[in-house]
Specification:
Blueprint lengths: L19 H10 L11 H14 L4 E5 L2 H12 L4 E6 L3 H4 L4 H6 L2 E5 L25 E8 L10 H13 L3 E6 L2 H8 L14 E5 L9 E5 L8 H7 L8 H11 L3 H21 L5 E2 L7 E5 L5 H5 L5 E4 L4 E5 L6 H15 L1
Parallel strand pairs: 2-3, 2-4, 4-5, 5-6
Antiparallel strand pairs: 1-7, 6-7, 8-9, 9-11, 10-11
Helix pairs in contact: 1-9, 2-9, 7-10, 10-12
């Protein structure tokens, strides 16, 4: 008898659907005609929501997806002879098909780090050739919050990186695909781990936290956004029907839905971690600080488990896998998955 796969998986928060309140906002925006390309009331209200959270003077530009947000944000801050420092595991280094290098012309300088977080003391060896015309010139430190390893930078760590960057004529860019999960995990406001911590450019994620699609490029230094409207258009990320992205962000910020979704996903990750920690032969391999659980388990069991639940092998050599929870993950989802783990491995 063929086994039916569950309707939810632990592969990615991208696999989740759209939060009902966001879907309602999309439907509500689908009435009548408005001016295209962002000159509409939905976009004006959504930008105001961002400024309420991040402060006056914040420049906000909506785009279709996360790779576009990262690439265009980095493009705004660099020239082709520059270099971008990032973690070895960074999304811009591993999962964007070389788009940052292709479209910015910059070389990525990856830093090896066991938990996805860059420390200031790791960067000086990359700065020895500053001013030497035969070598690329480091211009941006790009970090992910939360990181690709499920870990989270504290405000103190962020300020330390920002200070180092600014002292060395560099900028701090944040890939915030899971910024909501990071803020929820730290129990802080969004501004505390971005603008107030010294971040210059932020890619603000929506799709992983209940939106259908859409991200925002956020500038805390207005001078960096001076020509960004042209960069966005050339970069094919100027949505004509922008109201459908804007309406989603408006819904996400209404009544702190962004935080509610993220807190739930984080709570489900903590529950999953506690449950699987008690199973022999499974070892949690990273701190669980957002909505990702990384674990090592015997390699022979992985394909058996994947027949029922979709999840990714993160490090094949170490037999390390990644389980992601989402705003719609339920306790029943966790219990059913843990029951399968126990049945398969013990």
């Amino acid at each position: 008898m063929k086994t039916t796969k569950p309707s939810r998986s632990f592969a990615s928060d991208n696999n989740a659907g759209v939060h009902p309140q966001v879907m309602e906002a999309i439907a509500a925006a689908n009435a009548g005609h408005v001016i295209a390309y962002g000159d509409d009331s939905y976009t004006a209200r959504a930008i105001k929501k961002f400024q309420d959270h991040f402060g006056r003077g914040t420049e906000v530009y909506f785009v279709f997806g996360g790779t576009g947000a990262n690439v265009l944000g980095l493009k705004a801050a660099t020239q082709s002879h520059h270099a971008i420092i990032c973690a070895q595991t960074a999304h811009i280094n591993v999962d964007e098909c070389g788009a940052p290098e292709k479209f910015t012309g910059c070389k990525l300088l990856p830093v090896s780090t066991p938990d996805g977080k860059i420390r200031p003391e790791q960067i000086p060896p990359l700065l020895h050739e500053v001013g030497f015309e035969h070598h690329v010139q480091p211009r941006v430190i790009s970090i992910s919050q939360a990181t690709e390893m499920g870990t989270v930078y504290t405000p103190r760590e962020l300020k330390s990186l920002a200070t180092f960057a600014h002292d060395h004529n560099m900028l701090l860019h944040m890939d915030g695909a899971r910024i909501s999960n990071a803020a929820a995990g730290l129990k802080l406001k969004l501004r505390a781990i971005t603008r107030d911590a010294g971040v210059d450019i932020l890619s603000f994620g929506g799709a992983k936290n209940g939106m259908m699609y859409g991200e925002a490029v956020v500038f805390f230094d207005k001078s960096l956004a001076k020509d960004f409207k042209y960069t966005r258009k050339q970069g094919t990320h100027l949505p004509s029907k922008m109201r459908f992205i804007s309406a989603q962000f408006e819904a996400l910020f209404a009544n702190d839905l962004w935080r509610q979704n993220a807190e739930h996903a984080n709570r489900m990750a903590q529950l999953l971690a506690r449950e699987i920690q008690a199973i022999p032969r499974i070892e949690i391999s990273q701190k669980v600080e957002a909505n990702g659980v990384f674990a090592r388990l015997p390699k022979k069991y992985i394909p058996i488990l994947q027949k029922r639940y979709f999840f990714y092998v993160w490090n094949e050599a170490a037999s390390e896998v990644r389980f992601m929870t989402s705003f719609d993950t339920t306790e029943d989802d966790i219990r059913d998955f843990v029951a399968l783990l126990k049945k398969t491995i013990t």
